[in-house]
Amino acid sequence: MKAFFKGVRKHIGKLDAEQLREQYELVSDEFAQTEMLLHALNEGIVRLDAKGNVLQANPAARKILGDDTDAALKSMHLPLGRASKSIFELDYPEKRTVDVQTLPLGAETLVIVRDTTAEHLRTEEELRAGANRAVRDLAAGVAHEIGNPLNAISLNLQLLERDVGENESITICMNQVKRLDGIIRGFLNALRSPAPKLAPGSPADPLRNCLSTMQRQFEERRIQVNLDIPAALPSVAIDKEQMEQVFFNLIKNALEAMGDGSTLSVALGYDDRDVTIAFADSGVGMDAEHLSHLFEPYRTSKENGTGLGLMVTKRIIEAHSGTITAESEVGRGTTFTIRLPRLEKRVRELN
Ligand code: ADP
Ligand code: MG
Question: Looking at the domain that runs over 199-341, which CATH code has it been given?
Fold first, then answer.
């Protein structure tokens, strides 16, 4: 392009009107194409004058930086007439991460702006997933190793008891060892939870199973269970055993949160996307801070709790492509709602 202009300039005195028109047409075509290119680019392209005022900005630049491109760029304090590269977090017009590059362009500065929000989110997520996996492997190894000395301690405590007879200290030690064993077992179970074996079915079956195995506890504590199951329920892809474990975890927590004689409501339902299962207890409830960390491992408010039940629950639900949410109010109770995608819906989406 440079050579072309140089040639035209050199010979401009010798060109007649027709030739000039021809050259002019070439230039204006070229200009129109450049303009089109600028419009089509996803990158924001901005030209700044020597004082840093915007001379020209393509639509992508306005989309990324907002309509007041000038103010947005000034707030970045970019070096003028120099090459540079930086990353900015924008709050306006929406939260974004942008890569901003400057290049000298004669007396002007060319600014190239790239929206890298999605890339940054992805790398963060990948890093977190990798770290999680590493921590989990390490933790599983440690937990497994703790099992052996624990067995030895337990065995020797039994031998000791046989020698010295019943003894309070030994009993305490044995109970604590039992507790440690339970925590480790729960922990390893949580880490190992296998992929669900999904088959078309209804969550009503594992729910009825679970309620009937817990019937004794309800009776002993005079807990009233209100069960609401619609006559016809759309199918979902479900691993009934794992789902029964989910229901057990949620109902156990509800029982632990409620006083004797309280009421637990369990309702199945559906909308055009999902089948829903809601567990509403009338227990102690949780405050916002507690709710915001729910489903994280080892968060427990119970003396003998492991804080693993909800983590496992969430993992199982997610392996079913579902979601679980909790609403709670201190002193009033808590409702956990599970959503499992309807089977027809899944198939439709795949198609
Ligand atoms: P754990 O029951 O061993 O403590 P969970 O993961 O099952 O572990 O639960 C974590 C914590 O979440 C509990 O200790 C309790 O503080 C809170 N929680 C769970 N379910 C309920 C509920 N239905 N009502 C009130 N608090 C709950
Ligand atoms: Mg629990």
Answer: 3.30.565.10
- pTM score > 0.70 for this model? no
Q: Which residues, at least 6 apart from 263, have a Cβ–Cβ distance to it below 8 Å?
A: 223, 224, 225, 226, 282
Atom 18, ligand 1: residue with shortest CA distance: 253
Ligand nearest to the backbone CA of 313: 1
Task: List the CATH code of the domain at 119-191.
Answer: 1.10.287.130
DSSP state, residue 196: P
Atom 19 in ligand 1: which residue has the minimum CA distance?
253
Pair of tokens at residue 48: 């700044």
Which tens digit of pLDDT belongs to each residue from 228-286?
999 999 999 999 999 999 999 999 999 999 999 999 999 999 999 999 999 999 999 99
Q: Does domain 2-115 have CATH number 3.30.450.20?
A: yes
Largest CA distance in the chain: 121
Q: Which atom of ligand 1 is nearest to the CA of 305?
A: 3
CA 300 to centroid of ligand 2, rounded, Å = 8
Give the ligand at the shortest distance from the Cα of 312: 1
